[in-house]
Design a protein that fits this description.
Radius of gyration: 21 Å
Largest sheet: 6 strands, antiparallel
Structural class: mainly beta
Shape: globular
Strand order of the largest sheet: 1-2-6-5-4-34
Strand content: 35-45%
Length: 488
């Protein structure tokens, strides 16, 4: 085992701030930040690690480094990537903070310089590119493109390039100087074309910028899509020939914005609107489709069927339901308790009509699928089951079969909470169930983490391998799988 020392000593607080009289649940228990960057080999294994599982599993998430005044929000934590490299039955684990601009500033100061999302950012040194003053911590997603991992932020920020094996931060990516704007949390990588598709939005923008980065790293397309006012879209969808962008009823509170604060609200008087445009289309070519009000954090997949665009998502009926918990952070606790179901939209390019329907009523989120077939029809998706808890926790994995409608699940067990579980094709894989799922599990009873490997075509059988870790992997956000042939 080896450890890696960050730029400065770490001070981690488990309460909201030095003067706080109450505890913040997103800094306690399975959310508590880890203070050590590790590089581990020769880990204890229960079962057997498959030799045809080769590649690296990476998961991003918030891991606060320095205590700071005010109320902590889960989105405030400094980005930390946890990675597991599988190589011929051997397993190596590593975790590193993403060395953002803000990380280096606070390292030099030896303390926190930013207040959090729930506080006035007026005194912050700088923020993301839209003038919010909020720290861009690159803590949300990990996207593989052009041999690098991009660590992204849940609003719009700099995509930070990270080496997928060493986890060395290579710096904010400007794509050979051609990138025009911040990037949202979930850009789409099309493995068939080598393209990366993205959009940008802001609290003062009545439009989105939609762009494409080519396989050589240059921006090959940029378009403006007009909106009725500032919006907060989180994800997008792509097909072979089209892109789907979203105008949803979660909007920026303009009065709060005038007072220098960031606040959002759900305006149920608005419909949901979906912009369908050709992949290399302009704003003038957008076709708008309307649907019932909702919010969508994450898209499963989208594809074309004749003259229709099909899109499956995790649909949130009400992203600002009322909290039933007596707590000074009740609003945040309510906002972070997702209530989403697997849902299907059909956009008819001939009639201009939208059809929509739920696929299942189970509360699931953080979907993933075989990244080799993004934008074309898939059969299986792998989703995280949301626990009935006051905070955001995943208690299992649910696999949906889009052909038969059947589902299969695996529960982690009492006091065990998992991470997003992407599909990892086995060597020579021929389908989107021919492989494994890899996930981190944080065991609050043992106070340590584990790596689980499950057969994607038989979740109910449970893990084929459990790999023990000496410290926890705090509950976090998104993950990805990178195959060994992509690492070459």
């Amino acid at each position: 085992m080896s450890t890696h020392t960050p730029d400065q000593p770490i001070a981690v607080a488990r309460a909201v701030g030095a003067d706080s009289s109450f505890d913040n649940p997103y800094l306690l228990g399975v959310y508590a930040p880890v203070q050590t960057e590790l590089s581990l080999e020769d880990l204890e294994v229960i079962g057997e690690v498959p030799r045809d599982l080769n590649g690296v599993y990476l998961r991003n998430g918030p891991n606060r480094r320095f205590d700071s005044p005010g109320r902590y929000h889960m989105f405030d934590g400094d980005g930390m990537i946890h990675a597991v490299h599988f190589d011929g039955g051997k397993v190596r684990y590593r975790n590193r903070w993403v060395r953002t601009k803000a990380f280096h500033e606070e390292s030099a100061a030896g303390k926190s310089l930013w207040t959090g999302l729930m506080e006035n950012p007026e005194g912050n040194p700088f923020g993301n590119g839209h003038g919010l003053g909020i720290k861009d911590s690159a803590n949300t997603d990990v996207i593989f493109h052009r041999g690098q991992v991009l660590a992204t932020w849940y609003l719009c920020g700099d995509p930070y390039a990270v080496d997928p094996l060493s986890l060395e931060t290579l710096g904010a990516q400007d794509f050979l100087g051609t990138f025009a704007g911040d990037m949202m949390a979930h850009p789409k990588a099309d493995e068939r074309t080598g393209e990366l598709l993205w959009f940008d939005y802001g609290p003062d923008m009545n439009y989105m910028r939609y762009g494409i980065i080519g396989p050589d790293g240059t921006q090959t397309h940029l378009a403006q899509v007009d909106l009725p006012g500032p919006r907060l879209p989180h994800d997008m969808a792509i097909t072979e020939n089209y892109t789907v962008l979203m105008d949803l009823p979660l909007v920026q509170d303009q009065e709060a914005r005038r007072n220098g604060k960031y606040r959002i609200f759900y305006d149920k008087s608005l419909v949901s609107r979906f912009a369908v445009l050709p992949r290399y289309g302009s704003g003038a070519e957008v076709r708008w489709f309307e649907a019932k009000p909702c919010y969508i954090y994450h898209v499963v997949n989208s594809w074309e069927e004749g003259t229709k665009i099909i899109m499956e998502v995790c649909r949130v009926k009400n992203p600002q339901h009322q909290s039933t918990f007596e707590h000074p952070l009740a609003n945040m606790l309510a906002y972070m308790r997702l209530d989403a179901q697997l849902y299907r939209y059909e956009f008819d390019l001939v009639t201009g009509q939208t059809s929509e329907r739920p696929i299942d009523d189970q509360n699931i989120e953080f979907p993933s699928m075989d990244q080799r077939i993004v934008g074309v029809p898939h059969r299986y998706s792998y989703n995280m089951s949301l626990a009935n808890e006051p905070t955001l926790l995943f208690d299992g994995i649910v696999r949906y079969d889009s052909k038969t409608g059947e589902k299969e699940s695996y529960q982690f067990g009492a006091g065990r909470w998992g991470s997003e579980s992407p599909f990892a094709p086995r060597d020579g894989s021929t389908s989107d169930s021919d492989g494994y799922l890899v996930t981190f599990v944080n065991d609050e009873i043992e106070g340590r983490g584990e790596i689980l490997v499950l057969a994607a075509d038989d979740l109910a059988a449970g893990p084929v391998a459990r790999i023990k870790l000496p410290q926890s992997v705090p509950a976090g956000f998104h993950a990805t799988w990178i195959r060994a042939d992509q690492l070459a």
